[in-house]
Write a structure and sequence with these properties.
heterodimer, A: alpha/beta, 3-stranded parallel sheet, two-stranded antiparallel ribbon, 4 helices, 5 strands, 33% helix, globular, B: mainly beta, Ubiquitin-like (UB roll), 5-stranded mixed sheet, 7 strands
Chain lengths: 132, 67
Amino acid sequence: MKSDNLLIAGKYYVSRLLVGTGKYKDFEETRKAIDESGAEIVTVAIRRTNIGQDQNEKSLLDFIPKEKYTYLPNTAGCYSKDEAIRTLRLARELLDGHNLVKLEVLGDPNTLYPNVIETVEAAKTLIKKALM
Amino acid sequence: MKVHVNGLEKIFEVSELPLSQLIEELALKEKKFAIEYNGEIISKGNFPQTILKDGDKLEIVIAVGGG
């Protein structure tokens, strides 16, 4: 193990690059781009599923296996501390108890500038209660 | 009965419905998702004994590209 490896929550990472998984043409392109990037940590969004969706519709998790990558579910789209915590609790259930997150509480819908006070409050609650 | 699923009203002819049956109806069985039932997260093991009633609210989420 090289001494400059990144250590987070007991796991070593060779790459310090964290990448998002949005804006790609399809899941295959997402997979290829992330693979090429060498990143080992990826961010994902948590969204309501479409009711009545195609049963055979592919999932991001099929292309970016969580056994290979560390997922950081994020709270983009949340405008309050409570909303962010709720999203992350659902993410933890979805990702089988995974506790690492990317936390941000938004302040302005146009600029996506964060609400720093709410973000810090959400972080305090999450740390104190370990996601409850 | 009426059940709210992700903000949409779904009407069923029965007065009670196991959550596991709804999951099958929504073709979610093979998918990776998480459910909030009336504000509480329900683990998969508790789906069969969770019985939906009129007025219940469900939020079903998945992981999507973003970040």
